[in-house]
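Troubleshooting: if your tokenizer reports a length mismatch, compare your output against this known-good record of 217 residues.
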Amino acid sequence: MKNAEIIAQTEAYVREALAIGGAGHDWWHVYRVWKNALHIAEQETVDLFVVELAALLHDIADHKFHGGDESIGPKTARAWLERLKVEEAIILHVTEIIASLSFKGAKVATPMRTLEGMIVQDADRLDAIGAIGIARAFAYGGSKGRLLHDPNVPIEYHTSFETYKNSPAPTINHFYEKLLLLKDRMNTATGRTLAQERHAYMENFLAQFYAEWEGKI
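Known-good structure output:
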């Protein structure tokens, strides 16, 4: 099977699998990450087939919706790629990217070994910031019944993935515990450039949020 057909079948598979989802991890999140990754990859010399497969499959089975199982995403992606008879070296690369992609806490390093992985990681992080990042943060917080904000709940810079993924903190805390940190964790020059404006948008949003919270405007 040609690469283009594998990409087309994978797009259809992910679109169907993630068609329903109101917490910011649906097909349209994957679509945006895919397009972000393609844009970044235009500026680099990489294996575009790996980039596209990893971007399309990166959230096929997110641990947040599978009881915290961090292995289910790579396993699900592998099963699909084996079904399409993708060569083992490509499968290993794609599943490695998926396993290493996620933000795991403010004080937890999440390095990527390959440039393909760096591109997909940047693309995913871009979708977590800016206007869409704000919308996704509150959508996910609402799905978990979290408060918008509670000034009495301190910000926590997590030192382990366990404490990060199990945090019940209000959504506003998430900006400081993850979203505002992503600008400085971009891997590529293109990712860093794109992150600047989105980061500034979040800072402006927070200033407006706090002013309204205190009835100042």
